[in-house]
Amino acid sequence: MINLCKSLLIISLGTTLYLVNSLSSAVYGQAVRKNVTTLTSEEIARFVNALDTIKTTTRPGSTIPIYDEFVALHDGVFSFIFEPSVGFNITHGVPAFAPWHREYLIRFENALQSVDPSVTIPYWDWTDPKDLDVILSDNFLGNRGTGETITVDGVEYTGGTVTSGVVANWVLDPRINIEPIGLTSLGTDLKRFVEIPPFDRYPVTQKEINDLLSIDNYLDFRGVLEGEMTIDENGQVVKGVWRLHNYLHGVIGGGLVRDLNAEPIPPNQTKILGTMNSILSSPYDPIFWLHHANVDRLWASWQVEHPGAAFYPASGQGIQQNLDDPMWPWDGGQLTPSSFGPFADLLPLYPTVPNDDIVTPRDVLEAPGREYVYDQLASVVSVPEPTMTFGLLGFAALGIRTKLQRQATMSKRSKS
After folding, report:
1. CB 309 within 8 A of CB 228
2. What is the pLDDT of residues 229-251, one digit of tens each?
3. How far is CA 350 from CA 64, 304, 336, in A?
4. What is the mean pLDDT of residues 79-101?
C-alpha cells in the first residue's frame, strides 16, 4: 500500500507542483541542520529511511534512481575539464566551490524532505572524534568497510565493502561510479578504507578552524576550506597542500600513494581505494552530504563576519565563477557537459533542468538563515599552547520549490 501511494503521488509533475505550492509554507519551514552527535534515534531512522527511499525510487522520465541523478551531476562538473570551451572543473578548485555545493545540498535536502518533511542533512564536525563514531555505526551510515587488507609502510589495514547500515544493500551504477586517476569504473560496491595513511591525521585541530575563520579574503578562505591551501606558522596562505575538505574525503575513502610525506597528495596517488575518495562520484557515499554540510556550516560561520555580496568576487574569475554568473546545471542551458570518455555514458543520465531554473552565487549567499539554519555555527576558540511521505519531487519541481521559497522571502523583505 505504501509503494502504491508513493507511485500515485509522484506519477506526474502536476501532482508534484501541487505539493510544492501547498506544502512549501506549511510543511517546509526553516530546517535545522544538526551535529550528528545530537541526533535522536528517531531522527537517525528518518534520515536513513529518506536516503534509502530516494536511492530505490526512480522518478518519471528517468532511468536511474533519484539519488543516482545527484551523483551523476557531481560527475558532470568534472567533464568540463575536457570541454574545449571551458577547460577546467567548474565547481572544484574555483570560487564557485562553496555556492555550487550549497545549492547542491539544498536540492538534495529538498529531495529528502519530499519523503519526510522533518528530515534535514546533519553535519560532521571534523574537530570532534565522536562524530565519526556515530556516523560509522551500524544503525546509521554503516561500518568502515570489510573484506580487503591494505599494507602501507609495512602495516596492514582493513577496509572494503560497507556491510552494515542503510547502504549495506546499495548497488552503485558502474557508469556513474568513476575514479579520477584513469577515469575507470569502480564497480557496484560502496567501499571505505577509513584513516589509512596518509589519510590518518584526524580529527582536525581547532587551530586549523581558527586559522580558516580568521581569513578575510573569500578567495583565500575558499582555498583553505576546500583544502588546496593552508595557513603556515607565520599566518601566510600556502598553496600545494591537501587539507580540510579535500583531505577528509581521503580519511573516509582512502588511497595509495608513492610517498607518504609528499605534498600535495593527488599527483602522488597511485590508486583510489574507497568511494568517498573518488571525488567525482564521492556523493555515492552518503557521508559526503554530512561532510559538505560542515563545509557549508563553516562558510556560513565565516559569513557572520563577512556578510553580503561584497566579499564574493563580482568579476574576473572565469566562466560561471562570478557573483551573478549562473552555475551549471542551473544555468539556463549555457553550458553543455563534455562527452569525453566515460562522460558520454552520463549524458542521458543527467536530470532535465528547466531553462528558467537559474541559480547564481548571489542567490545562495543568504540561504543559511533563510532556508535552513545550523544548530551551532563554528567560531574562533582559544587553543592552549602545545605541550509521513508526501511524494518524491522531481528535479524540476525541486528547483521550483527552492525558487518559491526564495521569492517569498525576498518579497517579505521588500515589503518590510
Report:
1. no
2. 999 988 899 998 899 999 999 99
3. 10, 35, 11
4. 98
pLDDT at 262: 87
Contact 28, 405 (CB under 8 A): yes
CA distance 50 to 119: 8
Task: Retrieve residue 53's grid coordinates.
Answer: 527511499
3, 7, 12: which is closest to 394 by C-alpha? 12
Distances (CA, A) of 405 to 106, 168, 186: 11, 35, 38
pLDDT cut 70: percent of the chain above it: 85
Domains, the chain, in order of start with CATH, read: 2-415 (1.10.1280.10)
Residue 391: CA count within 13 A, CB half-sphere: 23
Residue whose entry in the numeric block shows the C-alpha cell 531554473 = 357
Strands (E) located in 242-362: 255-257, 269-272
Question: Do residues 112 and 372 touch, judged by C-beta distance below 8 A?
Answer: no
Q: What is the pTM of this model?
A: 0.89
